[in-house]
Known about the structure:
The protein is of the alpha+beta class. It contains 3 helices and 6 strands.
Amino acid sequence: MSLIIYPLIAVSAIPFIRMEARLKQHYRHLESVFAKAKINLLYYASAVLKVDDGTSAITLEAGPAYHHGMGAVHGSVYFKMLDDAAYFAANSRVTDFFLVTTGFHIHMLRPVGSGTLRAEGRLKLCSPSLLIADAVLFNDAGKEIACGTGHFAKSKFPVNPLR
């Protein structure tokens, strides 16, 4: 009996395996787009993005180059990391078009001078017209230093214009 069941399970699992492989390819494509974006090369070339299903994480070594006049990391770095983490968590579920940020609310909780910053994004809502994702920014001690929520919508730009 197991000889009959095994081929049926294997055959029915093939579409799932193909879909999973295509999703992983989509995640790697999003990471590549992030790494090659001119704003990221200019703004924070050392940042590394990892995307998975409904989640993302960005790490950045923050030092004096990111400081404002008072010697702490500028709030624009907080915002960009949070927005990008939430954005890529949301775009992980949208495989046909890039998203646009339609709104983002941020809470800056404490300053940080330097060290490794890590932003973690998580998709909260995925509907046909709106995606909502949260992001949290941590310092190198694992302490939360900022958080935010973003609203996103599909753009007219295909994720992969060659498809």
